[in-house]
Every structure is written in structure tokens, then in C-alpha cells.
Specification:
The structure holds three protein chains of three kinds. By secondary structure, chain A is mainly alpha-helical. Chain A has three domains: about 190 residues, Cytochrome C Oxidase, Chain A, CATH 1.20.210.10; about 150 residues, no CATH class; about 60 residues, no CATH class. Chain A contains ten helices and two strands. In chain A, strand 1 and strand 2 form a beta hairpin. In chain A, helix 1 packs antiparallel against helix 2. Chain A starts with a helix and ends in a 74-residue tail after the last helix. By secondary structure, chain B is an all-alpha fold. Chain B is about 60% helix and about 0% strand. Chain B has five helices and two strands, in the order αααββαα. Chain B is elongated. Chain C is an alpha+beta fold. Chain C contains eight helices and ten strands. In chain C, the strands form two sheets. A five-stranded mixed β-sheet of chain C has the order 3-2-1-5-8, with no helix packed on it. Chain C has a five-stranded mixed β-sheet with strand order 4-10-9-6-7, with helices on one face. In chain C, helix 2 runs antiparallel to helix 3 and helix 3 runs antiparallel to helix 4. The radius of gyration of chain C is 29 Å and the shape is elongated. Classes of the chains: A mainly alpha, B mainly alpha, C alpha+beta. At the A-C interface, strand 1, helix 3, helix 4, helix 5 and helix 6 of A face helix 1, helix 2, helix 3, helix 4 and strand 7 of C.
Chain lengths: ~425, ~170, ~325
């Protein structure tokens, strides 16, 4: 346990240093013409994530530090009135609920620290592969900022039955309701981006679409958990496990996979194999749903989490078969990740050599040479004239059949405006 | 900014690199490695949940002193779910996701030569690497790894008498 | 030792895969029309799988569910559940359909042009305000119900019971005729006084310590929870009740039982579930299951967290009075 705490303390230091670096870089090192409102949504997501991290990780550090004090120096921040191993322990005056508050003050923003980058990556990949701008760019930015702000005031929804004052429970239910709205807006915007697109169904795109699917599924069950009255009966059951795995585990992993498939050419100068990618995606998404959808039901049936075995409760005997199904999907899904690992390492050495801009994307990273250059661009830094989402921009914006304004279905951010073109 | 003509050794190019692209790949590979460990743990405890009375050689192989005849002990079950959660949330999905893509994409997509401080960026990665090593080492201490859930609520996590994994190591 | 063997197998497989791939073609990397068509079809296939799985589970897993609420306060919980589930269910089915159908319908084709559609204030307004209104309704009901459940101040003549948790058992203490519990604290634990009751407190004289709960139907039960060592959680799923037991604190929860254990045993949903369970138990040669209300621990508390339970029996008022009178008071037990 002490090693765990030490590891986490060092991890927090790492994250804080990283976050500070990201914030300073985004604010200060944008190239000429790169206004904040021309930034790709990935950057918005990473930037806001870093801010959340700076605000909330120190509180986890404090929680961990106080725990170290209680464990090693006999303090009583979290402990009081405990009788164990035949004696009353000396601790007086502390409360475990204090720890819960401190932990979840990070714990909730943490899940958005996990999720927002995945959502940012998805915005980028969906719009590139749909050959359409991301729908509602400003609303997306607004949603990211709303989610970030609100995430700092919802932590108590993990503590509805902790014994804290029920009035607090009401407050947190209300704020949790609020945070559902920007998340919903983002989901609707993704679906609208798909609508009437020219979808290039690369593995990265499939994972991004899969992310939208699992994000919606997991997010909706969050509405049940966020309602304090409903949480009473499902807190700490498998319903919670199913919810957070779908919305955070699977969605964020899909975002990670999507990002790897999409930016592998930029990282290693080669392409990943698409056939393995397709197999990887379909097996993974089928198994992901196969594991976590049935899990909702065993949670509703009252099965607590963190139980070593369920055989001590005859009333849970009829859940055993479902547990077997879940495990089988989990084993198959886990083993199927070999497709990805093999693809990743082999393509590093044997993948098709990448061109400069294989996905025909607008953003600046695709204007750098394939071979890594220290300082990214060999000559001058690029100059930006437009936002990142001029895909399929038309001569006549009201006529869907008119020709592309720049002769092709994408326009690099570095392309200057044509005479008469609206600036963005 | 950085001197374009400095000589790069193997160590400065691949190990103690200050280039954001290399650091992003370091985050990615470390995150993937930790992810493999966490996935294996999840497969072990899913085996336990589906077939609690069945002996598995793989359980015997990987859990050493914490199993009896191929069936895991109750406290190592709690340790497995704890470490699975900790690794996945922090080491894979925070460092492996944010660390990789923020490092790779921020300078490239905003048109910068590198991060504001390449040195701090490198320190950030090596601290992450160090914390990963320590987390893996914590699996092998005698009392067992942390076992109070990834949320490690006290008093369970504070008192060694409450569960072995909360021991002084 | 065996671990090394498995690792060796893993490495062997890895090396074989590596060698095999040397002769494989890794040249295809970007989706073309043929890929898009195939993936589009798979998207529809997956949608069918997803719908089938969701519907199958929603229908066929009904039998494993908890029966209707066994407490009066829980009725609104169940009502709210149903409304919420219908709402999110409809949204889920529509959204999943749109996601995968669009993937199929708009699959990429050479020469096809995407629509440049970057913004619509009207749409954004609609789908910001609509969820907001729906959620206000849901949460409004939820907060009213939360207050209903958690506010114990206006309870008429509740029965006060302390539920005491420790690694790894439950005990309970009835407040007796004065309906007031004597002070309890770990410092008073000594010998047979396992719950740490301050026997000098006159309220403690008529308290009764038990190892299983008997509750009278139709009376409000006011639970007070304590813990001896670590966090536990008193989870009584049939009554829609849960509250953490925190060392150093007294937490509270209350409900009014609606059905006696006998009545619940004759509930049609319980009968169906019991039949299902007993089929499984018979096949394993185990004793048949008879329905009982249960209190189980629902907060990770150590190695035997999975085996911490207390039986709850709900009976008519007169049977309850009789049972209670048979339990010894603390003054009788702790001399």
C-alpha cells in the first residue's frame, strides 16, 4: 500500500508537469494565424484537460499525503473510534468521509481527464474521415468548457450513500443533471457530422464511431446513477461497473485506438494494416458490449461489486450463467487485442511507407515531412489562414452539388483565402 | 529554441529525448505495456467470477503464494481488481492517452517547434516511467499489493490489520 | 515456475507470428470503396446484433430482477426507475440506430461529395433545450423522492434499531420500550459487551442485542448504523435501502416495510425467480432456496466482504411484539 501511494505521488507529479507544459505551449507557442478559434478540437480538448488536471490532481495528492500520515505517523485525519484485533486503536476525531470528498474531488474530473482527449481525437477523426467539417465547432468548444467547469462540482454523486448530509446529495444531483447536457450536445454533434458525409471507413474511423456508440450507451445509464434516489439501490453494484466501463473504459480505449491507427503514420512513418484493424475493431466492439451490457442487469438484480464469489447468496445463483457469458466475452475480447499489438509492432518495421498526408487531412501535423525533423518543420513555421475543418467546401455554399472551392475535398489550414472567400 | 546542429547520441535520441514526438511514443509504449498487465489481471478475476470452484493452471502459474490448488485466495482477488483499476485509469488512460497524444499533437497542430519546455517534458515521462516501475514492484511485496479498491478508502487502506494489502510496504 | 513456462509459450507464439508476417503483405492501408461497402454492411450487421442483444436482455433477464419494492418509500424509486429507463431506452435505440445506419448509408464512394454543413443554431438550440427540460422533470421527481426517503424528521412513532457492522458480521440493537438507544462506542467493548454499549447510560438498560432482524409490517423503521472498524455498507435491496456504516459516525436510513416475508414468498415475481434458482441448485445437489429478505455488505471491507449478511424477517405487528418480548435486554445479559 505504501508503494502504491508512492507510485501515485510520483505519477501525480508527472501529470502536473505535463499539464503545465501543455497549457503554456498552447497559450504561447501557436504559430502566426493560429487563433484560438482556429485550433483543431483535439487541441481544445487537451488544453482544457490539462487545466482540469492542474486544478484537481493536487487534491488527490493531498488525500494521499494525509493517508500516508495516518498510516505511518499515527495521525487521525480519516480515522476515529476503531476497534480492531482486540483493541481500541488510538485514532480520534477523523472521518473517512473526508477522504471520500478529497478523493472524488479529483476522481470525478479524472474521468473527464480520461474522456475529453478521446472525444477531441474523435472529433478530428470523424470530420477528416467524413470529409465534412465537425458539426457545431463552437458548440463543441462550449461543451468542452462546460464539462470541464461542471466536472469540478459534481463529485458528490459518488457519495450519495456515504453518510454525508442528504442536502448535499440534492445539490450534487442537480449539478450532475447539468453536466449531462453538454455531453448530449457532443453526441448529437458527432452523429450530425456523420450525416450526409462521404465516410472513409478506416479502422480509426470505425473506432471513433464505436466511441460515439459506447459513449451514448454509458452516458445514458449515468442519468440513472446521477439521480440520488435511484442511486440508493444501485450504488456499488455491477450497474456502476457496467456504466463506468462503457463510458470511460471502452470509450476512452476506443479513442486511444482510433488515435493510434490515425496518427501511426505520423509517429512511425508507416501505415498500420487495415485488415488486422478491421478484425480488431469488430471483435473488440462485439466483446465490449457482450461484457458490459448484461452487466447492467446483474447490477439491477442487486449484485454488489468487489465480491470474490457470489456463491454465499442463493438469491444470486441465477446470475451465475450471466457471469459466465460475461467472462467468455471478456476472455475473447482480451485475447483479440493481440491483433492490435501484432499490427502495431509489425507495422513499425514492415508497414507500408506513409505519404505526407495519407488521410487527406487539413491540420498542420500533415504538413511536416514524413521523416521526423527536430523542430518539426525544416524551414519556416507554417502560417495559418483558416480553421481546421474546411472539408468539401463549395463554390456555392447553398448548393451541395457545386464544385469544391479549392478543387478538392479538403483545404489545408495553411492555404490562403481565395479572393472573396469568407474568412473562418 | 533547440540547437539544430547538436550531436545526438543513442541515449539523447531514444532514451533521454527532449523531442515531443519521441516522448509521445515513450508514453504510448509504456502505457500499452501497463495495459497488457491490467488486462491479464482482469482475465484472471473474470475466471474466478465465472467459475469460482474450478481450478485453473493459469491461476496457479501467475498467482504463486496467493492461490490454493489453482483457485485464487479472497484477498488477492481484491488486490487484482484494485490494481486493474489503478493501472487502467491512471497509467493507461491518463498517461497513455493524454501523455501520448497531447505530446504528439500539441506542437504539431499549433505550429510550434516543440513543447514550451522539452526538459520538463522529458522529466514528466521519466517520472511516469518511475511510477510505473514502482506500481509493478508493489505487486510482488510479501503482504500483497494494495487491495482496498482503486479508490483505496480508509480505514481499510490505512490499517494493515484490516487487510494484508494495506501493509506497511 | 509455471509462470515462466507460460511466458515462454507467449514468446514462442510471438516469434512465430513475427516470422509468418515476414511473408505477409502489409501493403494495404487506406480504405477504398470496396472496404467502405463491406464495413458499411458490417455496421448494419452490428446494429442488428446490438438490438438483438439489448432486447434479449431486457426481456429475458426480467426473471432475475428484484421483485417490486418491499417498502412503501421504495415505490416511488421504482416508478422513477421505470420512467427513466423508458426515456433512456428510447434515446438509446434511436441513437444507436442513427449512428450505425448513417455509417452504412453514407459510406464513402469515389466521386461522392459530402455536404458542407458546419453549423445550425436552430438544431443546437433544440437539442440543448430538449434534454434540459426532460432532465429537469426527471431530477425534480428524483429530488422530491430523495427528500421523501432521507427526511426522517416527521416519522410517526418509528422503531429505532441500531445496525452494527464489523469485519465480518452484522449485529443489531433494538432501542426497547423507550425507543432510545443507549450510547454506543468502541471504547465500551468488553467481554460480552461486543457492541460497545455504555451500560451507565440509562437508555441502554432496555436495549436488546440480536443477530437477525425482525421488522413489523407497516411501521417506520429508523435505522442507525455504526461500524467497529472499516467502512461497510448496509444494503437491503428489497427495501431499496442502502447506507454506508462509517467508524466514528452514526449514519441513518429509514423505511416502512410493506410485505411480510410470507407475503413476499407468495409474490408472483418471487415465485418465478425462486423456481429458476432452485432448478440450478437442484442440478448442483444443493438445498433449495427459500426467499428471505437480506442485509448484505456493499462497501469493500476486507477479505470476507463477500460473506457478510444478516437475515431480515418482516412479520405482522403482533408476531413482532411477541418476538421482541422474547429477546433479553442488555441489563439481563451484561451483568
Amino acid at each position: 500500500m505504501t508503494l502504491w501511494l508512492v507510485s501515485m505521488a510520483i505519477f501525480i507529479a508527472s501529470s502536473l508537469i505535463g499539464a503545465l507544459n501543455y497549457i503554456v505551449t498552447v497559450l504561447n507557442l501557436r504559430t502566426k494565424g493560429m487563433k484560438m478559434t482556429r485550433l483543431p478540437l483535439t487541441i481544445w480538448a487537451f488544453f482544457v484537460t490539462a487545466i482540469i488536471g492542474v486544478v484537481s490532481f493536487p487534491v488527490l495528492l493531498s488525500a494521499a499525503l494525509l493517508l500516508v500520515f495516518d498510516r505511518s505517523f499515527g495521525t487521525s485525519f480519516y480515522l476515529s473510534d476503531i476497534f480492531m484485533s482486540g483493541e481500541v486503536l488510538h485514532y480520534q476525531g477523523g472521518s473517512p468521509v473526508l477522504y471520500e470528498h478529497l478523493f472524488w474531488f479529483l476522481g470525478h474530473p479524472e474521468v473527464y481527464i480520461v474522456l475529453l482527449p478521446a472525444l477531441g481525437i474523435t472529433s478530428e477523426i470523424i470530420s477528416t474521415n467524413s470529409r465534412k467539417p465537425i458539426f457545431g465547432y463552437r458548440a463543441m468548444i462550449g461543451s468542452i468548457m462546460a464539462i470541464a467547469f461542471l466536472s469540478t462540482i459534481v463529485w458528490g454523486h459518488h457519495m450519495f450513500v456515504s453518510g454525508m448530509n442528504p442536502f448535499l446529495g440534492s445539490v450534487f444531483t442537480f449539478t450532475t443533471l447539468l453536466i449531462a447536457i453538454p455531453s448530449a450536445v457532443k453526441a448529437f454533434n458527432y452523429v450530425t457530422t456523420l450525416w450526409k458525409g462521404n465516410l472513409q471507413l478506416n479502422p480509426a474511423m470505425l473506432f471513433s464511431i464505436g466511441l460515439v456508440s459506447t459513449f451514448v450507451t454509458g452516458g445514458l445509464t449515468g442519468l440513472v446513477l446521477g439521480d440520488s434516489a435511484l442511486d440508493i439501490n444501485i450504488h456499488d453494484t455491477y450497474f456502476v461497473v457496467a456504466h463506468f466501463h462503457l463510458v470511460m473504459g471502452v470509450s476512452a480505449i476506443f479513442g486511444m485506438y482510433a488515435g493510434i491507427y490515425h496518427w501511426f503514420p505520423k509517429m512511425y512513418g508507416r501505415m498500420m494494416n487495415k485488415t488486422l484493424g478491421y478484425w480488431h475493431f469488430w471483435i473488440t466492439i462485439i466483446c465490449a458490449y457482450g461484457v458490459f451490457w448484461p452487466m447492467h442487469f446483474i447490477g439491477l438484480a442487486g449484485l454488489p461489486r468487489r465480491y470474490y464469489t457470489n456463491t454465499n447468496f442463493p438469491m444470486f445463483d441465477d446470475l451465475a450463467d450471466i457471469n459466465v457469458v460475461i467472462t467468455i466475452f471478456a476472455l475473447v475480447g482480451g485475447i483479440a487485442q493481440i491483433f492490435f499489438i501484432a499490427n502495431f509492432f509489425i507495422s513499425m518495421y514492415r508497414g507500408e511507407k506513409a505519404t505526407k498526408n495519407p488521410w487527406k487531412s487539413n491540420t498542420l501535423e500533415w504538413t511536416t515531412p514524413v521523416e521526423h525533423v527536430h523542430g518539426n518543420w525544416p524551414g519556416k513555421l507554417p502560417e495559418v489562414h483558416r480553421w481546421a475543418y474546411d472539408y468539401s467546401k463549395r463554390v456555392d455554399s447553398n448548393d451541395d452539388d457545386s464544385d469544391y472551392l479549392h478543387g478538392q475535398d479538403f483545404v489545408l489550414q495553411t492555404t490562403p483565402l481565395l479572393d472573396g472567400e469568407e474568412p473562418s | 529554441m533547440s540547437d539544430h546542429h547538436h550531436k545526438e547520441t543513442f541515449v539523447t535520441k531514444y532514451i533521454f529525448s527532449q523531442d515531443h514526438k519521441m516522448i509521445s511514443k515513450q508514453f504510448l509504449v509504456t502505457g500499452m505495456f501497463m495495459g497488457i498487465i491490467a488486462v491479464m489481471m482482469s482475465m484472471l478475476f473474470r475466471l474466478q467470477l465465472a467459475w469460482p470452484d474450478t481450478s485453473f493452471t493459469i491461476v496457479e502459474a501467475f498467482l504463486g503464494p496467493h492461490q490454493t490448488d489453482g483457485i485464487m485466495n479472497p484477498d488477492i482477488y481484491l488486490a487484482l481488481v484494485t490494481i486493474h483499476g489503478t493501472i487502467m485509469v491512471f497509467f493507461v488512460l491518463t498517461a497513455g492517452l493524454s501523455g501520448t497524444f497531447s505530446n504528439l499533437l500539441i506542437p504539431l497542430q499549433i505550429g510550434a517547434r516543440d513543447m514550451a519546455s522539452g526538459f520538463l517534458n522529458m522529466v514528466s515521462y521519466w517520472l511516469f516511467f518511475l511510477s510505473s516501475i514502482i506500481m509493478v514492484i508493489s505487486l510482488f511485496v510479501e503482504a500483497g499489493p494494495a487491495s482496498a479498491g482503486w479508490t483505496v478508502y480508509p480505514p481499510l487502506s490505512a490499517l494493515p490489520q484490516a487487510i494484508p494489502g494495506s501493509g506497511q510496504e | 515456475m509455471l509462470a515462466l513456462f507460460y511466458i515462454f509459450i507467449g514468446v514462442a507464439i510471438g516469434v512465430s507470428v513475427w516470422q509468418i508476417t515476414r511473408i505477409m503483405n502489409f501493403r494495404s492501408s487506406i480504405a477504398n470503396d470496396k472496404d467502405n461497402a463491406a464495413q458499411g454492411k458490417y455496421a448494419i450487421g452490428f446494429l442488428a446484433f446490438l438490438y438483438a442483444m439489448m432486447i434479449y436482455c431486457l426481456i429475458f433477464m426480467n426473471v432475475i430482477m428484484l421483485p417490486e419494492s418491499a417498502s412503501f418509500e421504495g415505490e416511488h424509486d421504482d416508478n422513477l426507475f421505470n420512467i427513466t429507463f423508458w426515456l433512456i431506452g428510447i434515446v438509446q435505440f434511436i441513437m444507436q440506430f442513427l449512428i450505425f445506419y448513417f455509417t452504412f448509408k453514407y459510406k464513402g464512394k469515389e466521386g461522392q461529395k459530402a455536404k458542407f454543413y458546419a453549423d445550425s443554431h436552430k438544431l443546437e438550440f433544440i437539442w440543448t433545450v430538449t434534454p434540459a427540460i426532460v432532465l429537469v422533470g426527471l431530477i425534480g421527481y428524483g429530488l422530491w423522492q430523495w427528500n421523501n426517503v432521507m427526511d426522517l424528521s416527521d416519522a410517526e412513532d418509528p422503531i429505532v434499531i441500531e445496525v452494527y457492522s464489523q469485519q465480518f458480521r452484522w449485529d443489531a440493537r433494538y432501542a426497547g420500550a423507550d425507543n432510545t438507544l443507549g450510547l454506543g462506542n468502541v471504547n465500551f467493548i468488553k467481554g460480552i459487551n461486543t457492541m460497545g454499549v455504555d451500560m451507565s447510560d440509562k437508555n441502554a438498560a432496555d436495549d436488546k442485542q440480536v443477530t437477525e432482524l425482525y421488522l413489523p409490517k407497516g411501521r417506520k423503521i429508523h435505522f442507525k448504523f455504526r461500524s467497529q472498524d472499516v467502512l461497510h455498507s448496509a444494503y437491503m435491496p428489497h427495501f431499496r435501502a442502502q447506507m454506508n456504516c462509517v467508524p466514528g459516525m452514526v449514519t441513518e436510513f429509514g423505511f416502512t416495510p410493506k410485505y411480510t416475508t410470507e407475503e413476499m414468498r407468495n409474490n408472483s415475481e418471487v415465485i418465478k425467480k425462486t423456481i429458476g434458482i432452485n432448478k440450478i441448485r437442484r442440478a448442483k445437489g444443493e438445498d433449495p432456496y427459500v426467499f428471505n429478505y437480506l442485509l448484505l455488505c456493499n462497501k469493500i471491507c476486507g477479505a470476507s466482504h463477500y460473506n457478510m449478511q444478516m437475515k431480515i424477517t418482516v412479520v405482522e405487528q403482533d408476531e413482532y411484539d411477541k418476538w421482541l418480548s422474547e429477546q433479553p435486554t442488555l441489563t439481563e445479559v451484561i451483568k
